[in-house]
Amino acid sequence: MDEWRNEFSFFHELQVRFGEIDGFGHVNNTNIFTYMEESRIAMFKELGLMNDWGAPDSVEIPVVADLQCDYLAQIMYDERLRVYVKINEVGSSSIDIHYLGINEKHNPVFTGRGAIVQISRKNGRPVKWSDELKKQLKRFSKEAHV
Questions:
Q1: Angle, CA of 119, 125 and 131, to the nearest 5°
Q2: Per-residue model confidence as pLDDT tens digits over 29-74
Q3: How far is CA 64 from the centre of its chain?
Q4: Is pLDDT of 6 > 90?
Q5: Per-residue b or e along 55-88, where b marks 16 or more CB atoms closer than 10 Å to that residue's CB
Q6: SS3 annotation, the chain
Q7: For residue 69, which phi and psi values (nearest 5 degrees)?
Q8: pTM of this prediction?
């Protein structure tokens, strides 16, 4: 775990909102997927990808192909979290992303992984990364390792 944890450098900070708490007083499990989404989008913004993907005339868009989460500890209202995100592997039209949620005490509260696929907005089929974008994704992946 320590070795894997040290491979992250990019993170997104967030604060747990009251509306994310369930009847048992901790974060509802479904909200973790929103935390991963928010953090993944922050990473995509850092890479400059959201300008292209978010444009109304964009031909390619990213979609989540799969997403998994392991819950390690309860997360309570008003906690501040750092959600670390790293590109683990770059495929021809997909990327495998890893997630690590850390609380204010520096303890892991969740881990996750997921695949994002770039698809055609017109036909829904995978679209290969351009050579330049693939280089950029791989470079970001290597730079993220501390």
A1: 55
A2: 999 999 999 999 999 998 888 888 888 888 999 999 999 999 999 9
A3: 10
A4: no
A5: eeeeebbbeeeebebeeeeebeeebebbbbbbbe
A6: CHHHHCCCCCEEEEECCHHHECCCCEECHHHHHHHHHHHHHHHHHHCCHHHHHCCCCCCEEEEEEEEEEEECCCCECCCEEEEEEEEEEECCCEEEEEEEEECCCCCEEEEEEEEEEEEECCCCCECCCCHHHHHHHHHHHHHCCC
A7: -145, 140
A8: 0.91
Distances (CA, A) of 39 to 11, 121, 124, 125: 7, 23, 24, 25
